[in-house]
Fold this protein.
Amino acid sequence: YRMAQMKLAKKQRKLRHKVSGSRNYQKQQKRIARVYRHISNQRKDYLHKLSTATAKQYAYVCVEDLNMRSLSNKGFGNGKATLDNGYGMFLFMLDYKLEERGGKLVKVDKFFPSSQICHCCGCRNPKVRDLRIREWICPDCGAVHDRDTNTAINIRTEGMRLVAA
Ligand SMILES: [Zn+2]
C-alpha cells in the first residue's frame, strides 16, 4: 500500500510537468487513474480478508459507533491513517458477513463512556478522557489499566448487555 502511495506521488509529480490538456498530459492522467484503482483494489482485498476471518472467528463483534467525521479530526492525531484504513468499509463488510452466519455486529453508542469506566469495579473516572493518558490506576479499586484494553472490555460488556436486552 505504501509502495503504491509512493508510485502515485511520483506520477502526480510528473503530471505537473506536462502541458495541461496535451496528449501526454492525458496519458499521464490515465496512469494515475490506474494506480488509484490498484490502491482501491488492494484495500478492498485486505478488508475482505480481514472481515471474513473475523466473522469466522466470532459470532458477535462489538464496536464503538464512532462518527467518521470526528475520527478524521485532530483529536485522534491519526485521522488520515484511520480513514485510509477504510474502517467504515470494514464495518460494512463485517456487518453483513456476521449477519450471513447468524451473528451480529453490535454498535455501542458513541456517548457510552467506554474509556472512563473501570471494567473491574464499574466506577467512572472522567479524568481519563484526555486521549494522551494511555495508562491509569482506578482511584476506587486500584486496578491498573491500559487505556485501549480497558475500553475494549467495556465496549464488549456493553455490547453483550445490549444483545441480551
Ligand atoms: Zn476500579
